[in-house]
Amino acid sequence: MTIDVLWTNLFGGNYLFYFKMLEGAFLRSDMSEVENSPMAKAHVISNVGAIAIGPQGMLDNTVKSPETPEIARPITLITKGKPSPDVQKLIDFIKGEGQKYIK
Questions:
Q1: What's the half-sphere exposure (Cβ side, CA atoms, 13 Å) at 100?
Q2: Vertex 75, ends 72 and 80: CA angle to 5°?
Q3: Which of 39, 54, 58, 102 has an alpha carbon 20 to 30 Å from 69's alpha carbon atom?
Q4: How far apart (Å, rounded) are the C-alpha atoms in residues 32 and 4?
Q5: Three-state secondary structure call for residue 48
Q6: Whole-model pTM?
Q7: Is pLDDT above 60 for 64?
Q8: What is the pLDDT of residues 81-102, one digit of tens each?
């Protein structure tokens, strides 16, 4: 069985993995690049031996996830001008009570 390694755009979700886990090392030359995580998932579902990196939201009963290390990345919120009251409410939640949901 050959292993088909799928990779999404480096500056998408795989940026953190590339620099934190692989420490910027050379990636496989025989990997397949896909546009986004849903495309990677679809490829894995239809190709035995394929593996991809993606967000936990991709997990369901159609794919399996081997035990993997947990990594975290900082988030950046951006707005145009002063945040709206609803956006400010989200920011306040993230800075306060929401901290218990952040690793």
A1: 1
A2: 170
A3: 39
A4: 7
A5: coil
A6: 0.55
A7: yes
A8: 898 888 889 889 888 888 887 7
Count of other CB atoms within 10 angstroms of residue 76: 5
Amino acid at 69: P
What are the backbone dihedrals phi and psi of residue 5, each rounded to the nearest 5 degrees, phi first? Answer: -90, 125
Q: Say how far apart CA 63 and CA 41 lie, in whole Å.
A: 8
What pLDDT does 56 receive? 78
Ramachandran class of 81: left when φ > 0, alpha when ψ lies in -120 to 50, beta otherwise: left
At 8, which helix (H) or strand (E)? strand 4-8
Please report which confidence band the pLDDT of residue 28 belongs to, taking 50, 70 and 90 as the band edges: low
Phi, psi of 18 (to 5 degrees): -60, -45
Structure tokens at 81: 């001008």
Burial class (CB in 10 A: 0-12, 13-18, 19+), 41: buried
Place of tokens 């409410």: 89
